[in-house]
Amino acid sequence: MVQLGTAASARGLPIDPLIEKAIEGSAKGVPAERVATAVRLVAMQLDTAAAALREGGADPDTLEIAAGEFAITAGLSGSDITALARTGAKAPALTVGLRVAGTLAALGVPPAEDIGLVSVTLRSGEPSADLLLLPAHVQSEVAKGVTPAQAAAGLARAAAAHARNGPPPGRGQGHPHPPAPPHP
Fold it and tell me: What share of the chain is helix, strand, coil (3-state, %, to 5)?
């Protein structure tokens, strides 16, 4: 497994996910052969994430690659990762976006709606904190009886409308009329 970590590092991949998987398997008493297989799978997912990010125009660092691997582990594909990279988001926002996309996938949001919602949010230029709120917003809508797909699609439509038109009346704006100038 040391050779696998060394080879991954030489390819610019993060080795922490490999070490974490090996420690996890050992701590659970999993036979060494199965741990090695799981570590190889993580290395393949890291390679897939790195290639997908590069295909999307990113010059990924190890944090972005690890975030992409997280999203792949949650059920997204290399092409989903590429789509997020093509949003043109800066590295920190893209890293958060990949983590959020993985979390949404784990919540049951289908890939198309997941990537649509995260992409529109990344393109909006809103702070990363807004990205971090997306899973809670989806869960809130699901609690009201909609499916994860419907929740994500509705949030994506609202984010796109906000990007086109600004916030709804009365939200995120100052007073509609400026104060009167002071009298001399």
Answer: 70, 0, 30
- Are 167 and 161 in contact by the 8 Å Cβ rule? The answer is no
Residue 70 pLDDT level (bands cut at 50, 70, 90):
very high
pTM of the model: 0.83
Residue 173's pLDDT band (cuts 50, 70, 90): very low
If residue 111 lies in a helix (H) or strand (E), which one and from where to where?
helix 111-124
Residue whose token pair is 């989806």: 138
User: Which value, to the nearest 10 degrees, does the dihedral of the CA atoms of residues 117, 119, 121, 125 take?
Assistant: 180
Of 172, 169, 142, nearest in space to 155 by CA: 142
Query: Cα(28)–Cα(152) distance, rounded to whole angstroms?
Result: 36
pLDDT in tens, 83-137: 999 999 999 999 999 999 999 999 999 999 999 999 999 998 888 899 999 999 9
Is 180's pLDDT higher than 70? no
CA distances to 19, 33, 101, 123, 126 from 132, rounded to whole Å, are 26, 37, 10, 15, 11
Q: Which amino acid is at 69?
A: E
State both tokens at 77: 């594909």
Tokens encoding 169? 């009346």
Instruction: Give one DSSP letter per residue of 22-36, joined into a string.
Output: HHHHHHTT--HHHHH
- Among candidates 129, 154, 130, which has minimal Cα distance to 141? 154
